[in-house]
């Protein structure tokens, strides 16, 4: 009889089975019915039939922007309709008087982890004003909280590339300093130079062997043109599975036949689409893209920052919002919404040891729900969160000393 660190008894899986989950050295070594799991354990926990979900994956967040952990900052509307440039200006003014990133990022991480997030991808501003300071501070926060959450970092040119000479070099330097991906922002709408912007991003990705995650708010046929350009470049460089287009509003703004044509290109190239179904914006048609073979996943994006005042870091809430705005009603649709913050997001982030499965990292969330559908529509709390088999949040509260 083998001995394991922890045996989680009476765990309900999303397929309806009730099983025992054996964990050793931070990994799941077996999943079996109680009668088939003759193991000795240093610790045994009875989950009493509560649902076990894989750790939630936030595919898009900004750890350097939020005001969680700081004083309340009232939202400042744009003066003449939404403008990315004006929002960036307002953001810089607000952040100039904010508490240090170390404080705010720690508070935002704890908020997300308490709700079940065990993996996240954070975009970090890289520009001429901040240089690599934000990157250094978010990397420090990532390392300080690595026992609670795993963080990928995107070097994000929030103030443009072509219109900000010197940023291209900073992005390359950021990747050499430890950023996991290179980002971009509206090659047409912000930089007014599609090829120049994308040449920099894809050049760094190809040269440094990293992935790409580009913010694309540009709408209509212009946005579709950019999306198809990104797909072709991805395919030409063999970067399939390593490129994400975040937001891609244009896919929700053009006729269905145009989306279907673009979806085919995205699927063939292996480009993923991230959406958080934001506010009053159009957003990509999730099921149409999925049925075409495109990986569509979700994330919280901005949480209580200069872009909008909303958000509590709960990815089940985000799955519900995506499902609600998409008209998801059937059991299959609701399961698809959950997949967007679990398996789909894990695939987009390239996580190879993910899931409630033998051999995977023991990252999971335990909550009172009968099935995946109830988890999405009811978002039950409290929740217990485990990272590498260790309890990091109990009753939706961070465990003291879980760092």
Query: How many strand segments?
Result: 17
Question: Which structural class should the secondary elements be placed in?
Answer: alpha/beta
- Poorly predicted tracts of residues: none
- Count of helical segments? 12
Kindly report the average pLDDT value: 96
- Label the overall shape: globular
Give the radius of gyration: 21 Å
Tell me the strand percentage band: 15-25%
Query: Would you list the SSEs in sequence order as H and E?
Result: EEEEEEHHEHEHEHEHEHEHEHHHEHEEE
Read across the widest sheet, the strand sequence of neighbours is: 6-7-8-9-10-11-12-13
Helix content: 25-40%
Q: How many strands, what sense, and barrel or not for the largest sheet?
A: 8 strands, parallel
Distance between the termini: 33 Å
Brief synopsis:
The chain has 403 residues and is an alpha/beta fold.
Word description of this protein:
With 403 residues, this protein is an alpha/beta fold. It has twelve helices and 17 strands. The strands form three sheets. It has an eight-stranded parallel sheet with strand order 6-7-8-9-10-11-12-13. Strands 5-14-15-16-17 form a five-stranded antiparallel sheet, covered by helices on one side. Strand 1 and strand 2 form a beta hairpin. The longest helix is centred in the middle third of the chain and has 18 residues. The radius of gyration is 21 Å and the shape is globular. It starts with a strand and ends in a 5-residue tail after the last strand.
């Amino acid at each position: 009889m083998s001995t394991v660190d922890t045996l989680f008894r009476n765990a309900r899986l999303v397929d309806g089975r009730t099983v025992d989950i054996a964990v050793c050295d931070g990994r799941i070594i077996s999943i079996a019915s109680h009668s088939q799991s003759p193991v000795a354990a240093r610790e045994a926990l009875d989950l009493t039939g509560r649902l076990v979900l894989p750790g939630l994956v936030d595919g898009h967040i900004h750890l350097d922007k939020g005001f969680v952990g700081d004083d309340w900052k009232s939202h400042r509307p744009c003066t003449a309709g939404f403008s990315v440039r004006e929002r960036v200006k307002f953001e810089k003014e607000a952040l100039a008087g904010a508490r240090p990133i170390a404080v705010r990022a720690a508070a935002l991480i704890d908020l997300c982890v308490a709700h079940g997030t065990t993996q996240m991808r954070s975009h970090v501003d890289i520009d001429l004003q901040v240089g690599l300071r934000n990157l250094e501070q978010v990397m420090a926060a990532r390392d300080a909280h690595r026992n609670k959450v795993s963080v990928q970092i995107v070097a994000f040119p929030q103030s443009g590339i072509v219109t900000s000479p010197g940023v291209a070099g900073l992005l390359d330097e950021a990747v050499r300093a430890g950023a996991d991906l290179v980002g971009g922002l509206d090659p047409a709408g912000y930089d007014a130079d599609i090829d120049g912007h994308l040449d920099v991003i894809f050049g760094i990705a190809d040269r440094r062997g990293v992935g790409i995650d580009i913010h694309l708010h540009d709408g209509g046929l212009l946005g579709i043109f950019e999306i198809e350009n990104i797909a072709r470049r991805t395919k030409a460089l063999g970067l399939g599975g390593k490129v994400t287009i975040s937001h891609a509003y244009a896919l929700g703004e053009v006729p269905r036949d145009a989306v279907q044509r673009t979806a085919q290109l995205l699927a063939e190239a292996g480009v993923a689409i991230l959406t958080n179904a934001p506010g009053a914006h159009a957003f990509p048609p999730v099921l149409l893209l999925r049925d075409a073979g495109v990986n569509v996943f979700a994330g919280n994006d901005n949480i209580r920052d200069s872009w909008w005042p909303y958000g509590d870091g709960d990815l089940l809430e985000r799955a519900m919002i995506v499902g609600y705005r998409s008209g998801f009603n059937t059991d299959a649709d609701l399961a698809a919404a959950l997949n967007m913050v679990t398996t789909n997001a894990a695939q987009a982030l390239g996580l190879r040891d993910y899931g409630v499965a033998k051999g995977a990292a023991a990252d999971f969330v335990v909550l009172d729900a009968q099935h995946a559908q109830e988890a999405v529509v009811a978002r039950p709390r409290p929740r217990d969160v485990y990272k590498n088999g260790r309890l990091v949040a109990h009753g939706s509260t961070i465990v003291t000393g879980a760092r």
